[in-house]
Structure formats: structure tokens, C-alpha cells
Amino acid sequence: EMEHVESRYEVKKAHDKPYSIVFPISAPEDIVADSGRAWLSITGDLLGPSLEGLENLLRLPYGCGEQNMLNFAPGISIAKYLIETGQLDQMPSVKEKATRVILQGYQRENRYRHSNGAYSAFGENSWAGKKAE
Fold it and tell me: Cys staple from 68: which of 61, 73, 86, 123, with CB 3.0 to 4.6 Å?
């Protein structure tokens, strides 16, 4: 079995003129009939290749305030990136999961909010949340 993988990143600056790239492809002489295959993936930005497993970065929040934020913050960044690049509506499962993670994370984070507006890992009644007397 022979498989050849080639990756290439081309960065085009806004002021560059259009250009083309040639990727020569050749199959071995003794290839089994109808077994040849090739893939070509073109993305418009450097983060494009990482979008394939994006949904795996979205995790439902749990635990104390710090753990909650650690799991809830990436959802905000992912949603913001997809909104700004116009891709959010093209990824309905990611949109649904990101929305759920953000809403649940925000609701959970409010459990750790103090009456003065500050937050702590364990909330108002924790040692860090008690006012100095």
C-alpha cells in the first residue's frame, strides 16, 4: 500500500496579485484499477484546518468557578471567530453546542458571583468570598 501526503500553506497578502499553484499528481504504474484517490482542501485562513474538529473543543462546564470558566470560555472564542468569519450558520451542530455551552457556563458562573460584583472559585460563602471584619 502506498500513500503520499503533502501539505502546503500559502499566505497571500491583500495586495498580492492572483496566482496559481500546480500540484503534480502521479500514480504508480502497477496501481489497482479504480483504486486511485486524491483530496484537495483549500481554506481561506490559517485556522481553517483546525475547524474540522472544532466541536470537540466545546465542553459543557462543570465544577468550581475556575473549572467552569476553563470549559466555558473557549465556547465564546469559537463562536466569536465563526461569527466574524461568517461561518457560524454553516456549522449548525457547532452553533447549537456553542450556544448551549455559553448559556450553561454563564448561568453556572453566576453561582460564584458575590454581592459586590466580584467572582471567586467557590462563591460568596467561601473563605475568599467573606468580607474582612
Answer: 61
